[in-house]
TrEMBL record:
Name recorded for this polypeptide: Universal stress protein
Domain UspA: 1-139, 150-282
PANTHER family noted in UniProt: STRESS RESPONSE PROTEIN NHAX, UNIVERSAL STRESS PROTEIN UP12
Family per record: Belongs to the universal stress protein A family.
Organism: Microtetraspora fusca
Length: 284
């Protein structure tokens, strides 16, 4: 059986957007889609004022969320293999458990339990970097239906290879262009007046990435038109700006400057907080 795509469901606008994104991706890849809602019931001992009927109400609401999500999927892709699971437990833990046998995990940027001013919720923020499968975080109302361009963050390390593989596959399935972006942060000396920006250095760096990092993927995906861009800016700012209207922005879980003990690198975390398009974090 094909490994399914898992999508978290909670009835929020962000989760609804995630369901639509996951359904489209499952249809493109020919994968089954599994809708998951986790009912989190605190232990009775931790409830100072138990509410009669709360547990049944939570289960009924979860079932309703799943039915509404399935209707969205059926409307978009009537022939898609879709199933639903109502689980009990902490949402992040349940989603990570479901992802163990999956090909991809998709979640909304912020669920019903988040604060209105937060761009990233506790569940979506806690999943990337904790599973071996790609995690896609989707914001509501931010993705153009006809967007085909895929943006991927690159550097000189081999840690970006899994992200490149995922990005090239997305570009192929969408029949879109791929832009591999390297955010080049200038040294502190630039602010003292002792550093002069040399365009030739950026050109040489682009050539190194184009030949040493992208060429092999071009050979594997000859149908994909791939370009390399070196942007003189902080990597997070460079990626967010270039991917403003992208179908998806792909980053690795850790970059070349990551410490081995860190689960999620600063660039991938920064992109998750600031990018408006869907972001896919691929385990390095």
């Amino acid at each position: 059986m094909a490994e399914p795509i898992i999508v978290g469901v909670d009835g929020s606008p962000a989760a609804t957007a995630a369901v639509a994104w996951a359904a489209d991706d499952a249809a493109r890849k020919g994968k089954p889609l599994r809708l998951v809602h986790a009912v989190h019931r605190p232990p009775y001992g931790s409830r100072p004022y138990p509410i009669p009927g709360l547990d049944d109400a939570l289960s009924r609401a979860g079932g309703q969320f799943l039915r509404e999500a399935e209707e969205i999927v059926r409307e978009r892709h009537p022939l898609l293999d879709v199933s639903a699971r109502l689980l009990e437990g902490a949402p992040a833990r349940m989603l990570l458990r479901e992802a163990e046998g999956a090909s991809e995990l998709v979640v909304g940027s912020r669920g019903r339990g988040g604060f209105a001013g937060m761009l990233l919720g506790s569940v979506s923020g806690g999943l990337p970097g904790h599973t071996a499968v790609p995690v896609v975080v989707v914001r509501p109302g931010r993705t153009a239906a006809d967007a085909t361009e895929v943006v991927v963050g690159v550097d000189e390390s081999e840690g970006c290879e899994p992200a490149l593989g995922y990005a090239f596959e997305q570009a192929l399935l969408r029949r879109g262009r791929l832009r591999a972006v390297y955010g080049w942060r200038p040294p502190p000396e630039i602010y003292t007046g002792y550093f002069v920006y040399d365009p030739e250095e950026a050109r040489q760096l682009r050539q190194v990435l184009d030949v040493g990092r992208i060429a092999a993927w071009r050979a594997r995906f000859p149908e994909v038109r791939a370009e390399v861009e070196v942007v003189c800016d902080h990597p997070v700012s460079a990626l967010v700006d270039v991917a403003a209207s992208a179908a998806v922005l792909v980053v690795g879980s850790r970059g070349r400057s990551g410490i081995a003990a860190m689960v999620l690198g600063s660039v991938s975390r920064g992109v998750l907080h600031h990018a408006h398009c869907p972001v896919a974090v691929v385990s390095s």
